[in-house]
Design a protein that fits this description.
Layout (H helix, E strand, L loop, with lengths): L12 H8 L3 H13 L4 H18 L24 H26 L4 H29 L18
Helix pairs in contact: 2-4, 3-4, 4-5
Length: 159
């Protein structure tokens, strides 16, 4: 019977295992440590802001185009969609890549100065890769937002 003590005064093995957590406990701790770790915590905070914004937009408190007058996305090559869509996509991609890299480092990297440097560089690299991916993803999305000006054509691509 779980929770009872054996004759030797020790808890049975299944009770000890239940107290410690199952097989997924280690993986969940690794995920939480990666998301709340020093470099990635900045992207986690940004992701919380994005989720809160979309929850407010879902209940009608704010509008998807709320910040369009404030930021010009042409310089970032993400024009054609509302600012909130572009930066939300950028944040989700960067957070996912950064947490994924932190989990890979936790699993495979040997502790030391090189691993520490990789931990610091990973979120920056994740942000750059996410920016490139966001630029590619928002191009076809501009058709869903007819009020937004279309993506600009760069001079080096014009014939």
């Amino acid at each position: 019977m779980p929770g009872t003590k054996a004759r030797n005064g020790r808890a049975p093995p299944e009770t000890t295992e239940m107290r410690r957590g199952g097989e997924g406990d280690h993986e969940m701790r690794t995920l939480l440590a990666a998301a709340a770790g020093p470099p990635t915590i900045l992207l986690t905070a940004a992701l919380v802001v994005v989720v809160c914004f979309w929850l407010l937009a879902a209940v009608g408190v704010t509008d998807v185009g709320s910040f369009d007058a404030d930021v010009d996305l042409r310089a970032w090559r993400m024009d054609g969609v509302p600012v909130t869509v572009a930066f939300s996509l950028l944040t989700v991609l960067a957070w996912s890549l950064s947490v994924g890299a932190a989990i890979l480092f936790a699993a495979f990297a040997v502790p030391g100065p090189v691993a520490g440097m990789l931990h610091l560089v990973a979120p920056v690299a994740a942000m750059l890769v996410a920016w490139g991916a966001t630029c590619l993803i928002v191009r076809p999305l501009h058709r869903l937002f007819p009020d937004e000006p279309g993506p600009s054509v760069r001079a080096d691509h014009a014939a």
